[in-house]
Amino acid sequence: MAEFPEGFLWGGATAANQIEGGYQEDGRGLSIADALPGGKQRFAIVNQPDFDWTIDEDKYTYPNHQGIDFYHHYKEDIALFAEMGFKCYRFSIAWSRIFPNGDETQPNEAGLKFYDRVIDECLAHDIQPIVTISHYELPLNLAQRYGGWKNSYLVEFYTNFARTVLTRYADKVKYWMTFNEINSAAQFPVMGQGMVPATGANDKKNVFQAWHNQFVASAKAVKIAHDLKKDLKVGCMIIYATSYSYDANPVNQLANLQHNQDFNFFCADVQVRGEYPAYTKRLLAEYGLTFADLKTTDGELALIKQNPVDYVGFSYYMSTAVETTGATTDQVAGNLMGGVKNPFLKASEWGWQIDPTGLRIALNELYDRYQKPLFVVENGLGAIDQPDKNHYVTDDYRIDYLKAHIQAMAGAIADGVDLMGYTPWGCIDLVSASTGEMSKRYGFIYVDLDDAGNGTLARYPKKSFYWYQDVIKNNGLEKPNKDSEQA
């Protein structure tokens, strides 16, 4: 494995709504994540025409309410991250913990004090906090009363939230991201934009309008951060799923090009380059729209132009393939999106195709396009872990997955890519966003909790914990470590 740059940010990533719990403690309001039922059918449920964000505990379970109770275990968890050697920890601030309904003018001080403690605990262990301002946890009131991000009022509410946390933590947090996986709304506007079919999620005009409002909000956050401190770095964050044409048919090659533009690049093009790309015309036309159908102003477009992000954060779990001629109909699942089955790849237990070479391609494609630093802020393997009688998990499958992707990153660095860091997803077991399950585990740390919410919540390092500890210690260079085998 090639050596990584000095100062490379090794760490891990989580989201408030999937780990914190304490969902009604210390003045916290409800978020959209609190209304998402648990289980493999959660997306099917929220996509029903009559879904209206009502929480029905007689009918469904809501694992996000408890998460893994990071709210009361944060010191223990951060100490375990420090034991692994984390240089950074990416987490999100729950908007409804700071502004319970999202539209208040004054923040909830108890919520801010919680993040005071979390950030100070990280710094006490020499761990740099990496903060996502909005990570799939829009205050529920903003989805119910305002209809989600299609409503331009949310720009003002988000700006107030962003200004509050940026001002509070400017001296302690250098790296920020404005919206998690902002392009996910192309497939599923529920989590990223707070819209369901009953509030217009199926109307692409609403999706594009919501994106525009988020682009404006992101630009305002960047401006606030840079006005506070010149050295604050604010990034965008997208899903990136390297995409291949299924074959050499020019029809599929063109379809793949357009898929890349529409999904992988569109949101980043606006946030990084500061303007809508030329292919916006073709993309909108596919839905019978023109740019004039969106509510935009010259002032908003100028703001977006003047305040591009400083770096590109992205999640990478799998690749996809595009086939439009009917040559194959075999479909596979993925991170909020699927595609046709790639015969050259194996898949995880949840059907996501495993493609470490695709990460090297992704890094090259993004860096060639934007020439700005990149940050792999999510990557990992969701799997069913079987602990032994001592609660130890021998997760060689996870180690193999991560090792191959770290090797791919090393290859991209050797290619000349400017890569800032790597924060594997779910560095501690948490509630899966896609299925609302605990049994789909990603972490280096096993949490004793099942899908029904039963368990002691005790934390136990897995074999991958000691392996990753060694990777960080050697800055990516693997060396034999007896502790890794004896742990």
TrEMBL record:
<keyword id="KW-0378">Hydrolase</keyword>
<dbReference type="InterPro" id="IPR017853">
    <property type="entry name" value="GH"/>
</dbReference>
<dbReference type="InterPro" id="IPR018120">
    <property type="entry name" value="Glyco_hydro_1_AS"/>
</dbReference>
<comment type="similarity">
    <text>Belongs to the glycosyl hydrolase 1 family.</text>
</comment>
<protein>
    <submittedName>
        <fullName>Glycoside hydrolase family 1 protein</fullName>
        <ecNumber>3.2.1.-</ecNumber>
    </submittedName>
</protein>
<feature type="active site" description="Nucleophile">
    <location>
        <position position="378"/>
    </location>
</feature>
<dbReference type="InterPro" id="IPR001360">
    <property type="entry name" value="Glyco_hydro_1"/>
</dbReference>
<dbReference type="Pfam" id="PF00232">
    <property type="entry name" value="Glyco_hydro_1"/>
</dbReference>
<keyword id="KW-0326">Glycosidase</keyword>
<dbReference type="InterPro" id="IPR033132">
    <property type="entry name" value="GH_1_N_CS"/>
</dbReference>
<dbReference type="GO" id="GO:0016798">
    <property type="term" value="F:hydrolase activity, acting on glycosyl bonds"/>
</dbReference>
